[in-house]
Amino acid sequence: MSNKAFEPARLGPLTLANHLVMAPMTRSRALGNVPNELMAEYYRQRATAGLIITEGTSPAANGLGYARIPGLFNQEQATNWQRVTETVHHHGGHIFVQLMHAGRVFHPLNLPEGAEGVAPSAIAAAGGQMWTDQAQMQAQPAPRAIRAEEVAQVRDEFVHSAKLAIEAGFDGVELHGANGYLLEQFLNPASNQRTDAYGGSVQNRARFVLETTKAVAEAIGPERTGIRLSPWGQFNDTPNYPEIDETYAYLAEELQKIGIVYLHLVDHETMGAPAVPPATVTTIREKFTNTLILSGGYTTLAQIDEALASGRADLVAIGRPFIANPDLVERLKAGTPLAEADQATFYAPGPNGFADGYTDYPTANGQPAGTFSPSYEA
């Protein structure tokens, strides 16, 4: 193996320290939907990744479907996110924010006053249960369908958020078009039963995703714009449908025309969904020639290097191993065994508070992952 994983990598205008990406992972530590010092510490500890993609961050109040997820649509949020970007950059990392509008994946108790769950169609996610801090697990209600005259406004919320992201010091934004959230809700006929220009055919169902991506790329630059997609994924009641491959081939072709810097493809086979067929990846790889990030089940250096050496991936994203291994890059390089994460604290505090299972995982030598350098205190 060449261990290409640890060589510097190009991503548009950026030179990343290595080919390893920290995948976006919701951790629900943003009290009041505002980033905080604890979150800054969490990302700082993992800044040796070539690229960090943040947890899903809502571009609008209506998109805050889960408890304690961060937003990026007002000045307070942008100012607090700047603390995160500054410390990641100070420690040699690069960081994109993932813009995730939850759409119909919501509960009203998780939304601020005046906000409401909206989606392409007024169809609840089947069997969906949502945690609320006020009433624990609750059934997800049906959202309100986005009216035709509101579509441009929802698109512009992504654009506004992307501009705030650049102001806050992010290297770019990733649009979350995967896992059954708003952008994928437009793509999937089970959640999109519109009869206007945004529903029906493959091209119509892809229209909102492409218009939003184009508008964001025009606002902040295509070299700062990426997107995450999950063909064959089944999260949040997004069943498979006959035109999957046609849909994603079309998206790849059109995203290439827009010229975004990367396409991030996630395979949820390890989470119980069908594997993404190799032919799907090959087609996307042929039609989208900028950076392709592959994600899903990569836990060993052999798997990572094979994906990079084969040319299937330009970068490889790793999720859960980064939770319990803040020094994951160093552990992979040294062949050190990986620690296991405590699933009970993925989205909730432990007995000692929100730092439990979040910023308290030690490095391989048993030392704490560290704190801010004294010269860099706020």
Architecture blueprint of SSEs:
Layout: E1 9-11, E2 14-16, E3 20-22, H1 37-45, E4 51-57, H2 75-90, E5 95-99, E6 118-119, E7 129-132, E8 136-139, E9 144-145, H3 151-167, E10 172-177, H4 182-187, H5 202-220, E11 225-229, H6 244-258, E12 262-266, H7 278-287, E13 291-295, H8 301-309, E14 315-318, H9 321-324, H10 328-334
Parallel strand pairs: 3-4, 3-14, 4-5, 5-10, 6-9, 10-11, 11-12, 12-13, 13-14
Antiparallel strand pairs: 1-2, 7-8
Helix pairs in contact: 1-2, 3-5, 5-6, 6-7
Helix and strand run: EEEHEHEEEEEHEHHEHEHEHEHH
Shape: globular
Bin the helical content.
25-40%
The largest sheet, given as strand count, sense and whether it forms a barrel, is: 8 strands, parallel, barrel
Mean pLDDT: 94
Please count the helical segments.
Answer: 10
Radius of gyration, whole Å: 19 Å
Contiguous low-pLDDT stretches (5 residues minimum) are: 371-378
In percent terms, what proportion of residues is strand? 15-25%
- Tell me the span between the first and last alpha carbons: 43 Å
Structural class: alpha/beta
Question: How do the strands line up in the largest sheet?
Answer: 3-4-5-10-11-12-13-14
Beta-strand segment tally:
14
Overview of this structure, please?
- The chain has 378 residues and is of the alpha/beta class.
- 30% of the residues lie in helices and 15% in strands.
- The protein has 10 helices and 14 strands.
- The protein has helices spanning 37-45, 75-90, 151-167, 182-187, 202-220, 244-258, 278-287, 301-309, 321-324, 328-334; strands at 9-11, 14-16, 20-22, 51-57, 95-99, 118-119, 129-132, 136-139, 144-145, 172-177, 225-229, 262-266, 291-295, 315-318.
- Strands 3-4-5-10-11-12-13-14 form an 8-stranded parallel β-barrel, surrounded by 4 helices.
- Strand 13 (291-295), helix 8 (301-309) and strand 14 (315-318) form a beta-alpha-beta unit.
- The longest helix has 19 residues, at 202-220.
- The chain starts with 8 loop residues before the first strand and ends in a 44-residue tail after the last helix.
- The relative contact order is 0.14.
- Mean pLDDT is 94; it is low at 371-378.
